[in-house]
Amino acid sequence: MNHTELTERFATLTTAHLADGCLRARLSVRCAPAGTRAVLPGRKLAGRVLPARHSGSVDVFLEALTSAQPGDVLAVDNRGRLDESCVGDLITAEAATAGLSGIVIWGLHRDTAELREIGLPVYSLGSLSTGPLHLDDRAADALESATVGEWTVTTDDLVFGDDDGVLFVPAAQADDVFRLAESIRDTEHRQAAKIRDGVTLREQVRFSEFLAHRESDPAYTFRQHLRAKDSAIEE
């Protein structure tokens, strides 16, 4: 799936749909930490991960860009630090010029007004005025992987972002996840339309049947019931 196909397919989905698709595909749901938000709300992000582990200098980002493919997303690992920012307007402008589709930061950004003017989707844990306060030895494999929260990602991963946050999906399983996510989306759209027409969600999922079944079998779960009724509100 090339980048154009990826963005077009994600255009009608959300990260929530993809997360549910991962769950149904029995994959780990790899979300960036809660609080990871877009500098420009309302923008969506999709692309291949381009990892870079920050150690105090922007040279690692510049080097990462030399091997970038159009549509890649720079995944910046600054270990979730909240005492310094690690990406500002110059790196964001450089990434945009290199054809990247966005930046995801496990850490903070600065130059918020300039980033909004540049318009490249940037996701981070927030903003702070100060730039890097540390300079450590750079790891030899700093461009091979990045950690974002509890997840380590590489160029074998895709990344998606919207107003709910950021999600990573293995590229090799992306088609399956998309197919499942699209099925979930369609089911939920039908359910929402029925609610607007006056048919409650409880009626649609036959909730009274679930309660009766659970009465006779306390181990019976709502998810088992939903699977039997081909509903998708929980996975």
Could you characterize the architecture of this molecule?
It is a single chain. The chain is α/β, with parallel strands linked by helices. Helix content is 37%, strand content 21%. It has 9 helices and 12 strands. It has helices at 3-10, 15-24, 59-66, 89-97, 112-118, 174-196, 201-204, 207-216, 222-229; strands at residues 30-31, 37-38, 45-53, 73-77, 85-87, 102-106, 108-109, 122-124, 146-148, 151-153, 157-162, 165-170. The chain has an 8-stranded mixed sheet. Strands 5-7 form a two-stranded parallel ribbon. A two-stranded antiparallel sheet has the order 9-10. Helix 2 crosses helix 6 and helix 4 runs parallel beside helix 5 (112-118). The longest helix is centred in the C-terminal third of the chain and has 23 residues, at 174-196. The model has no long low-confidence stretch (mean pLDDT 95). Its cofactor is a divalent metal cation. InterPro entries: RraA/RraA-like, RraA/RraA-like_sf.
